[in-house]
Structures are given as C-alpha cells and as structure tokens.
Amino acid sequence: MSFQFAATGQAVEQSDKPNILFIITDQHHARMLSSAGNPYLKTRALDSMARSGIRFSRAYVCNPVCVPSRISM
Question: What is the C-alpha to C-alpha distance for residues 20 and 54, in angstroms, rounded to an integer?
Fold first, then answer.
C-alpha cells in the first residue's frame, strides 16, 4: 500500500472483499496440527493462523486420494 501511495500520490481504498488464504498440503491429515491437539508436532505458524482466522474442522471430499480431491477444487 505504501508503494502504491508513493507512486500515485493517492491512498488505496480498503476492499470489502475478504482476504482468503487457501492452504493445500499433500498427504496431510487434520490431526497433524498442534492446534488440532497433536502433542508431538509443533506447527506454530499454522496454529497462529488458525487462532486469528477461520479453521474448517468438518470437510468432505469426493475422493479420499489426494490427486482427485485437488483436481475437484
């Protein structure tokens, strides 16, 4: 935003659109996060995002194998 202000001389208006970060991992089960209760794995960065945003705890896929599930999105 600072760069755009410096280049144009005008401030950029805030958008009403949500800021979405969609993370896809391969061969990753939901219980492999410390924020989901795993006592052995430390996922500090993902835990921080889970605390400050929305975390989906119930999701369904069309196929339990990675590649077809990713392609269906």
Answer: 10
